[in-house]
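Quiz preparation item.
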């Protein structure tokens, strides 16, 4: 292993940095020299000839440290020491069938120490006629990549490997850089550039590099050559570019897909885009378009080749950012009631510092509105010269004129979003100045204000679409039948309310708490409030009985937290119909922020944040509202919107009816991490590491960290993989945090926060942001993301999450007993279809697992990748396929073209089982789906009379409440299980599409033309099944 790390509990401070009392450092022990850049197969071969220490893993869990090296004639792979004779402690290169990455052989899957081995450091060599496996673990992912790349070239080209790779890659790069060098020639001859010009030219090609580092590299090169002048030759320029701008991790990725060439042709690129980046229906024209856009060399553009530099350009382009471009526009249904959306909200918007003595400024409103905020706060008091002013009462904050704020709101209200803006009006003015407020609002905002009375026949608020372009006032309102010019209402003073809540919590009975002050409200101002009438919250039972859908309650965060803890289900149900605003405790005099996720999980729509205070909590808020075009409205999860559904905000387990997703993240590398601000103790040295945090419901919250890469902020390589189970994907967020490892206290470098459902799978670059939310210039994380719906393979106690289970150990969804005979009889009829639905889904998903394993790939792989991986071994010695897919058959059967070896017979058996279970699901899912739906419809017919039916059965108190809750649970299960079955059907159809595509791409189709020069182009992910090693074959003798 790379090292052991003891990870104590870490506290996250407001600025996102982490501090701990005791900690052991995690160190990256890489055997690849820091400055040595691997960018060609010859580099890999040379490194293999020098040799590396690798660990050999046996199926009996024994591990042997051995030194492996490639013979200079490249004919065999040797290791030492060994008990075997020297001529037997080797493998002939020509006997190697395949090189497999990761822990994807039977030995790795079944030995007892697999969990201690890094997926990224493991690889296996499949060799011999019996397909034996040599399972190895490198000290770092760097070394593993070198061996895998070099061995794959040797398999393809044998002893001619180095001749075959007289690198067209290097030629393409050299010709491109040569042209650039000549174009920038300062002395007329084009033979040399001044040092300054050479530095600027490399800086132009790689803007993230520091000038001083480029200049130092040239000077080191000159010193090594004992050169006296400062001019730079073309060869020197190319060498320095190679050292500074080559990214080995991207080279290793390129050769994985390039059919063992030093570039990607259009077919290679097409496979990469579809199999890895998740793009659908990629034509070769699209590949050509990508090459023309990103390939810098003329040779590559003419031939349709994407070199390492072009591939790097593409991977760093907006096309490969992690954020789904579809979410950059409004893509959600905006026709649901207003209460069904999270609304981007600001607290004390007028403050730009703390809320006790900080200054007030209109720039607070400008910033919030430009960021997509849809709820801003105005705390209005009497001001001089009969002009109302805005500031925080009972504090020393400065004041701004109400009129100027309304002017700014009018100007910026609809700049970032056309959906309704809510003005939270906390009115403390006299009647005289209330009339001035009314005049300013009417004159400046005019028709933008929505003051039409609510429709009494409706049960819900209008939708954002219906209120497009409107401004809603939230505030106190006189009774609808009030006829005077002013009337008495309760004062809305958040500070006073907080003290009352604290008193009630300490003293018990809320009824004994002094009621808030009354004040006179001008009717004209009252009439401007229509859909957001402020009312006091008493308890959920009262609200369910008496509250109108246009009435809005504000919850202090302390009281809201109590509600979330004591009444999680009621809070969620309350928010299905009513808007709830949660504001920070006035005790937060430093304007720190609460965690918005604590209240989003309860369905609270308006969680007011102190925009002026950066840190983790604002990162979550900004990241969350990036989705749906940053319009300030995000549709809540379906389970929180449906009238009858069971969801508890504090669930620490999977959500009924929601299929958990598995998020697989590999942190590959970083680029151009800046030194943390205000940190000068280590000079310019940065020791970065990365945290991956999951924020969501309690069951989803988790974090993992990489090792520390010492003294390298420019291009650190992490190569570490993590996996997270996401139980409620619609509410989950992923936060990537980069920190500088320091014994004094780890300093914040950058972060990026993204909703789970906005993540694009594949190889992606993540732009890092500063503490205050600005994009850090040229600072990136390079990651690989895969999302699967379950984990396959392995034993439950090792794998941890949902794994393959036999029918005996299968968990079936069950109905709860209501003790209402008529309803219990209805729900009882769901037992059989629910069981059948689970069997269909589980059988199909479980059958996919062994097929992936026999293809030599992990559960992360899709079936497109599986067929591509298998294809090289489906071709016989005469270059003709030994197995063909019949695409005319709806279920894509396979037909052997002769006698198959045993290993391929196993693959075919696993494939046929997978197809059979998929077919069974497609043929039976509709009828089972209908049965479940019928039970749901029959039960819902009793919904309106549920309470009366329970009373007739003699239920009351807790038993009655439990019966109602069980009804909601059962309906949620029925809807959820029918949705899961529908999704499983869609999954099968997608799997068949992937197999269909891959068979065509690899020319493995019945009735297709014979083999061509393209027939071996699927070699990019080579994988075949290795021989299953029997326990009795294993001896204690080490090979």
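Solution:
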């Amino acid at each position: 292993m790379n090292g052991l790390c003891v990870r104590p509990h870490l506290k996250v401070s407001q600025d996102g940095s982490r501090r701990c009392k005791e900690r052991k450092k995690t160190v990256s022990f890489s055997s690849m020299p820091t400055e040595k850049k691997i960018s060609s197969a010859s580099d890999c071969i040379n490194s293999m000839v020098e040799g590396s220490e690798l660990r050999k893993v046996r199926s009996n869990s024994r591990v042997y440290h051995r030194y492996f090296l490639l013979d200079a004639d490249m004919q065999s792979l040797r290791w030492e020491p060994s008990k075997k004779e020297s001529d037997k402690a080797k493998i002939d290169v020509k006997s190697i069938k395949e090189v497999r990455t990761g822990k994807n052989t039977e030995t790795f899957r079944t030995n007892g120490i697999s969990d201690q081995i890094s997926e990224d450091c493991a690889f296996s060599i499949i060799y011999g006629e019996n397909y034996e496996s040599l399972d190895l673990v490198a000290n770092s992912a760097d070394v593993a990549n070198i061996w895998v790349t070099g061995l794959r070239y040797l398999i393809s080209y044998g002893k001619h490997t180095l001749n075959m790779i007289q690198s067209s890659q290097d030629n393409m790069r050299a010709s491109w850089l040569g042209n650039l060098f000549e174009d920038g020639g300062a002395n007329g001859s084009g033979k040399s550039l001044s040092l300054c010009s050479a530095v600027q030219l490399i800086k132009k090609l790689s803007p993230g590099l520091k000038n001083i580092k480029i200049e130092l590299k040239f000077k080191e090169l000159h010193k090594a050559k004992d050169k006296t002048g400062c001019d730079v030759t073309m060869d020197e320029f190319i060498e320095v570019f190679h050292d500074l701008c080559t990214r080995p991790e991207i080279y290793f990725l390129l050769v994985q897909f390039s059919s063992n060439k030093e570039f990607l042709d259009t077919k290679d690129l097409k496979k990469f885009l579809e199999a890895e980046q998740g793009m659908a229906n990629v034509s070769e024209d699209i590949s050509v378009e990508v090459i023309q856009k990103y390939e810098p060399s003329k040779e590559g553009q003419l031939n349709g080749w994407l070199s390492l530099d072009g591939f790097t350009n593409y991977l760093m382009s907006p096309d490969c950012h992690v954020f789904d471009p579809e979410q950059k526009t409004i893509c959600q249904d905006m026709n649901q009631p207003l209460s069904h959306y999270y609304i981007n909200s600001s607290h004390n918007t007028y403050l730009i510092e703390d809320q006790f003595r900080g200054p007030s400024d209109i720039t607070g409103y400008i910033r919030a509105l430009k960021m997509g905020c849809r709820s801003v706060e105005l705390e209005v008091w009497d001001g001089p010269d009969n002009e109302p002013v805005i500031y925080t009462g009972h504090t020393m904050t400065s004041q701004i004129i109400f009129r100027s704020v309304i002017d700014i709101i009018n100007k910026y209200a609809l700049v970032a979003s056309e959906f309704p803006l809510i003005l939270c009006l906390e009115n403390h003015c006299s009647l005289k100045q209330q009339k001035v407020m009314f005049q300013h609002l009417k004159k400046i905002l005019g028709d933008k204000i929505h003051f039409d009375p609510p429709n009494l026949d409706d049960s819900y608020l209008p939708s954002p679409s219906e209120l497009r372009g409107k401004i809603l006032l939230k505030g106190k309102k006189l009774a609808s039948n009030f006829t005077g010019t002013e009337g008495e209402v309760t004062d809305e003073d958040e500070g006073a309310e907080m003290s009352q809540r604290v008193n009630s919590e300490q003293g018990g009975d809320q009824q004994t708490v002094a009621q808030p002050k009354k004040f006179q409200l001008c009717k004209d101002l009252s009439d401007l409030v229509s859909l957001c009438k402020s009312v006091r919250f008493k308890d959920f039972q009262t609200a369910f009985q008496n509250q109108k859908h246009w009435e809005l309650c504000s919850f202090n965060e302390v009281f809201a937290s109590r509600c979330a803890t004591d009444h999680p289900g009621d809070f969620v149900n309350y928010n299905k119909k009513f808007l709830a605003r949660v504001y920070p405790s006035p005790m937060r005099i430093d304007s720190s922020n609460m965690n918005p996720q604590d209240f989003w999980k309860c369905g609270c729509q308006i969680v007011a944040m102190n925009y002026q205070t950066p840190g983790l909590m604002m990162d979550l808020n900004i990241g969350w509202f990036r989705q749906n075009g940053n319009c300030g409205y995000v549709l809540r999860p379906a389970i929180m919107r449906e009238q009858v559904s069971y969801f508890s905000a504090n669930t620490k387990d999977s959500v009924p009816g929601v299929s958990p997703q598995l998020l697989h993240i590999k942190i590959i590398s970083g680029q151009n991490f800046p030194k943390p601000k205000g940190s000068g103790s280590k000079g310019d040295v940065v020791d970065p590491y990365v945290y991956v945090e999951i924020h969501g419901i309690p069951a989803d919250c988790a974090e993992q960290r990489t090792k520390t890469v010492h003294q390298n902020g420019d291009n650190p390589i992490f190569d570490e993989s993590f996996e997270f189970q996401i139980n409620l994907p619609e509410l989950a967020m992923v936060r990537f945090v980069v920190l500088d490892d320091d014994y004094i206290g780890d300093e914040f470098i950058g972060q990026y926060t993204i909703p789970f459902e906005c993540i694009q799978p594949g190889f992606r670059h993540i732009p890092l942001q500063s503490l205050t939310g600005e994009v850090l210039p040229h600072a990136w994380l390079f990651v690989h993301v895969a999302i699967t719906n379950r984990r396959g393979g392995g034993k439950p106690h090792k794998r941890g999450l949902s794994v393959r289970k036999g029918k005996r150990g299968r968990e079936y969804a069950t109905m709860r007993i209501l003790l209402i005979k008529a309803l219990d009889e209805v729900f009882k009829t769901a037992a059989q279809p629910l069981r059948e639905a689970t069997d269909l889904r589980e059988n199909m998903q479980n059958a996919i697992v062994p097929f992936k394993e026999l293809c030599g790939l992990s559960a992360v792989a899709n079936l497109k990748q599986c067929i591509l991986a298998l294809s090289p071994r489906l071709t016989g010695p005469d270059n003709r396929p030994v197995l063909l897919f019949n695409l005319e058959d709806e279920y894509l059967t396979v037909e052997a073209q002769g006698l198959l070896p045993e290993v391929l017979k196993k693959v075919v058996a696993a494939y046929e089982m997978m197809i059979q279970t998929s077919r069974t699901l497609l043929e039976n899912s509709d009828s089972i789906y209908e049965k479940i739906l019928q039970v749901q419809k029959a039960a819902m017919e009793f919904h309106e009379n549920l309470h009366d039916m329970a009373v007739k059965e003699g239920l009351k108190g807790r038993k009655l409440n439990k019966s109602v809750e069980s009804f909601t649970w059962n309906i949620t299960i029925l809807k959820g299980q029918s949705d899961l079955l529908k999704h499983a059907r869609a999954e099968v159809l997608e799997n068949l599409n992937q197999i269909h595509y891959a068979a065509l791409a690899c020319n493995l189709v019945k009735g297709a033309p014979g083999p061509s020069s393209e027939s071996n182009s699927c070699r990019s992910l080579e994988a075949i099944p290795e021989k299953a090693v029997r326990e009795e074959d294993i001896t204690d003798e080490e090979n």
